[in-house]
Input
Amino acid sequence: MNLLLVHGPNLNLLGERKPEVYGRTTLLDIEGDVAAAAGARGAAVLCFQSNHEGGIIDFLHEQRKLADGVVINAGAYTHTSVALRDAIEAITLPVVEVHISNTHAREGFRHRSLISPVCIGQVTGLGRGGYTVAVNLLLDHLGAGR
Ligand code: CA2
Output
């Protein structure tokens, strides 16, 4: 199985600021966790981060026939991007949405996700550990062995 791990805007700065919200984990730490969780079940992971909506959409389009599933933390685009929602629907791959913080316990504008309806599941508020949950959920969905 080939999985994609996609991060949206500002998540390249993880670990540098706002530790009270996002912890001290860096993006590299998360990418390592996901690679390890996937590797334990025989899957490979391709990691990508962009601060640009179109960059994320282009990446999903380019990889749509090479990948089996996607774990995505779309950052603020979660709450704003119809284009990303349409891209997720268009690629017809199973996608799991992840948020490090509990978006439902934060400002009202973070409570709505435009991408949730086209994802197979959402993991929110579990911090760094949420990514391992998401990978296992995705691999279970894909029928990968344990
Ligand atoms: O909790 C999450 O994972 C979020 O997707 C993070 C997004 C936020 O817009 C979503 O509502 C929830 C923001 C990521 C910003 O990352 C920063 C990293 C370091 C310092 C400041 C922001």
Notes: The mean pLDDT is 97. The first strand starts at residue 2 and ends at 7. The chain is about 40% helix and 20% strand. Strands lie at 2-7, 44-49, 69-73, 95-99, 121-124.
